[in-house]
Design a protein that fits this description.
356 residues, three-stranded antiparallel beta sheet, five-stranded mixed beta sheet
Length: 356
């Protein structure tokens, strides 16, 4: 394959037309760049901005993040979704402190050994902070490069993904890496986010139009090719909102795998009958008048729809405490759950029903 020369136009375009105002672009501190890269996975820039600053206010460096309780990290992450990122963020900070003396390694190869840092994230940190000549292949960059190259191999096949990585490495700048690599990497991200979009890309104003084979063929939306796609599914969950005489709600930690993993939430059941049976075991003789069906609502995840049916139950006494001897559950009022790692829909529900 003959390679188009794209490094120079990408670098020049990024300097004059790319995104240069974001807070994590004003630093080569690997802690701040790493934090932004993890937050930006599957999340829009506009959403990340507020969370990024709140994290830095609470944990200004990797040592403070490593020393923090996991629940404090999850509480600040609440609403960003994909909570495994937060748990890996915490584990990664601890690994940097324990294994690397509190300083992020300077090579992508070493960065990729840390929890939660894949090859593309490692490449971004190494490129932005250390000017290493390494590629990235996040969703935006993958789209740009497959279109420029008219790379039509199925990326659901591992060997084709590896081939694209090899091509991406060959396209990286070869001169003035100190300045060129950070701007080139950012430029590819910016092009994918603002011009080389999934639908109706703005090819006429793209700096890579002369080199882009997909633009020449008139079919940029055909790239990238990936045949294996996740199908959407739907589930119905019943949430037991048990409220004691002090107005506290029973919350318990979810399992470490699955939806809302590791977060605090009301007990979850697959049906109303299972919910009532569980409640009867903990609070025998509960009067029917103590039950209130709260409005059901839909919570949309990337590949799944959750139909949530909250049911409020007013109870006397602790009751349920004995069911969680390992301390994975607690009674919490609004002041307590404000600092707990709760799923966004649960926090919204509790705030609407009980806060204030």
């Amino acid at each position: 394959m003959t390679f188009p020369s794209i490094a120079t136009p990408v670098v020049q375009w990024q300097a004059s037309h790319g995104r240069n105002h974001l807070p994590w672009q004003q630093t080569r501190d690997p802690y701040r760049v790493w934090l932004s890269e993890i937050m930006l996975q599957q999340t829009q820039v506009s959403t990340v901005l507020g969370y990024y600053q709140r994290f830095l206010d609470a944990f200004p460096d990797v040592a403070s993040l490593a020393a923090a309780p996991q629940d404090a990290v999850l509480a600040l992450w609440s609403g960003l979704g994909y909570y495994s990122r937060a748990r890996n963020l915490h584990r990664c900070a601890q690994a940097v402190v324990e294994d690397w003396g509190g300083a992020f390694p300077g090579r992508a190869e070493d960065l990729a050994t840390l929890p939660g840092i894949g090859r593309s994230t490692a490449g971004a940190i190494a490129s932005f902070c250390f000017s290493e000549r390494v590629p990235i292949l996040d969703a935006n960059v993958r789209r740009v490069l497959t279109r420029v190259l008219a790379f039509d191999a199925d990326l659901a096949v591992a060997r084709n993904e590896r081939e694209l990585w090899d091509l991406a490495e060959q396209l990286c700048p070869t001169e003035d890496l100190q300045q060129a690599m950070p701007r080139y990497t950012q430029g590819l991200m910016d092009l994918g986010a603002t011009i080389c979009t999934p639908r109706k890309p703005s090819c006429l104003v793209c700096p890579l139009q002369p080199q882009c084979r997909a633009a020449r063929f008139g079919n940029p939306e055909n790239y990238p090719v990936r045949t294996r796609k996740l199908k959407r599914s739907s589930e119905a969950w019943w949430l037991l909102i048990a409220v004691d005489g002090q107005g506290r709600v029973w919350l318990e930690r979810r399992p470490q795998q699955g939806i809302w993993a590791g977060l605090y939430a009301p007990p979850v059941f697959n049906g109303r009958e299972a919910l009532e049976q569980a409640a009867a075991q903990h609070w025998p003789g509960t009067a029917p008048l103590d039950w209130t069906d709260l409005p059901a609502f839909l919570h949309v995840l990337t590949h799944r729809d959750l139909h949530l049916h909250p049911v409020r139950l007013r109870v006397q006494g602790g009751g349920i405490d004995a069911a969680t001897p390992d301390g994975q559950g607690c009674w919490a009022d609004a002041g307590a759950w404000a600092d707990m790692g709760l799923p966004a829909p649960v926090r919204k529900l509790l705030d609407a029903q009980f806060a204030g």
